[in-house]
Design brief:
Blueprint: E1 25-38, E2 41-58, E3 61-74, E4 78-79, E5 83-92, E6 100-109, E7 124-133, E8 138-149, E9 155-167, E10 172-181, E11 191-201, E12 206-215, E13 223-232
Antiparallel strand pairs: 1-2, 1-13, 2-3, 3-4, 3-5, 5-6, 6-7, 7-8, 8-9, 9-10, 10-11, 11-12, 12-13
Amino acid sequence: MLSANANAERPFKTDDPYCVGLFRWETFGGLDIGTGSWEGIDDRTQVDFYAGGDYGLTDRSEIGISWNLFRVNDPGSEGFGDGLVHYKHRIAEATPSWPDMALDVSLKLPTASRSEGLGTGKTGFGTALLLGWKPERWTNTVRLGYYQSAGANESARVEFGVATRYMIGAETELRGEIYIDGNEKFGQESRREVSAGIAFKMFQSTTLDLMLIAGVSTSVPDLGVKAGWRTNL
């Protein structure tokens, strides 16, 4: 529910078109908590622990993996979630009239237990166009995505996200995002979230973040919190 996309720089679901750099690593992890009523179940709580990393193949491309290490549902069950792998390639540099652009392709690994309600049990394929603008202290990004699940009952969804970061100091950023994701589940409305938070560079290579999320559809938690870290090596 609240877990970030494999290819999104935490804590966003809306990725930017920029890569980690040639032979560079970026590792990340965190905790996502959602509470409220969603998908027809009242007074529930969901907790996700996840981690992952990206590696720069060139200055303009990277590969990465993200894994839902553990999920706790109340009411429900607990266990490992799905994994995601991705490849991102920057296809265009910004000009005065055109943004930075990248393409991202991803593959979902159905490692979660479907019988326990922790995953769909389906392999999924996704592709997204990523746009980015960097005027002065701002970094603004847009994600336009399409996702197709495999299996006997194939389903598809589209994604749209807008995210922004604003530097208020050398080590501190304000962050916000609007994210809309079509739902694979028949009869469920799209997942819509609005979030805001802050990120702080604790060390030269490590950034901590905290985001508060408000769900604006019945398919996502009413309230959520994301807290985590990101390290560049």
